[in-house]
Design a protein that fits this description.
The chain is built from eleven helices and no strands. By secondary structure, it is an all-alpha fold.
Length: about 300
């Protein structure tokens, strides 16, 4: 089985596992739409496709399905040694991916900002895997709650891994685009890497100012990315890719609006959107609408082979 078929098969079977897992009569499975259920969408469904867009080894792609199922299994048991042991395969896979990123630099391919985003994806996945291990072990820094540790794992996987992969893929498609779009996308690449780094630093240092700077950087970068991603979609030669990339770009806007409504409601004390609904709508919009549609949209050939 070739690499592409292997990855799509893994994603398809992962989708079945993701949809069916909340109703399995084993242990304590994560409920549908919970933050844990949203998280496991990435290792089960999005990661095998995202790895196809990266310069990573075949070993990582072969290990991914087994590691993803073990991650899912870890959420059926309480945090502890068993849960931590179940995510060890995912950590090993992330180490292999990070090593591929180091080779990317050694080959001198790190100067282009698209490759910088790709390198960030390689490294952020490893950081996210470490946080995931700590979360499932029930460990972490003393000043971090269990939820904060898990959110760190979630953000480094979605904003640190798949977002960076999509930014790199979009940047490659913009090589021949108008100079203004290229300039905007350069700031997207810089802002997205700086944003997640500042948010992590703000949490580690308990500094609201640093964290706010990171959030502002991420918000501005995501808005700009919606523009550059939509421009790539419009220029796509494949109707399927165009539709998927437009859904992905639109999901960025929807996700930002939902997050904004939630934030304003919290500040005003109105509580327009509770945390469960926020996780369900915002999380699934980002996971399915933005990440999955975006990754598949970039994997669909832009020009049919017969015409090429």
């Amino acid at each position: 089985m070739d690499g592409r078929r292997w990855s799509f098969t893994s994603a398809g079977l992962g989708a079945v596992a993701w949809l069916g897992s909340p109703w399995l009569p084993v242990g304590s499975p994560p409920s549908f739409g919970s933050i844990e259920h949203v998280f496991v969408f990435l290792p089960l469904v999005a990661s095998p496709l995202a790895l196809l867009l990266m310069t990573t080894s075949r070993a990582a792609r072969r290990l991914q399905p087994v590691a993803a199922v073990m991650v899912l299994a870890s959420f059926f048991v309480a945090p502890g040694v068993l849960a931590g042991g179940l995510v060890s395969a995912w950590l090993i896979m992330a180490v292999i991916v990070a090593a591929s990123g180091v080779r990317l630099v050694r080959r001198g391919r790190g100067a282009n900002l698209s490759n910088v985003s790709l390198l960030a994806a390689h490294l952020f996945l490893l950081i996210g895997a470490v946080w995931l291990l700590l979360s499932r072990l029930g460990a972490g820094p003393r000043n971090f709650s269990a939820l904060t540790v898990f959110l760190a794992a979630l953000h480094f996987h979605f904003s640190g891994f798949t977002l960076q992969v999509l930014i790199a893929a979009t940047g490659r498609r913009l090589q021949d685009a108008a100079s203004l779009l290229c300039a905007v996308h350069r700031w997207v690449a810089i802002g997205a890497i700086a944003g997640i780094s500042l948010i992590a630093a703000g949490n580690a240092l308990s500094s609201p100012v640093v964290k706010l700077a990171g959030v502002a950087s991420m918000v501005l970068s995501m808005i700009a990315f919606a523009v550059t991603s939509a421009s790539v979609a419009v220029e796509s030669g494949s109707p399927i890719a165009r539709g998927l990339l437009l859904v992905s770009a639109g999901s960025i806007v929807v996700g930002m609006l939902v997050a904004g409504v939630y934030g304003i409601g919290e500040l005003s004390g109105s509580g327009w959107i509770g945390i469960p609904r926020m996780v369900l709508v915002h999380g699934l919009t980002n996971a399915v609408g933005f990440t999955l549609c975006g990754v598949i949209g970039h994997l669909v050939p832009a020009i049919p082979e017969a015409r090429a």
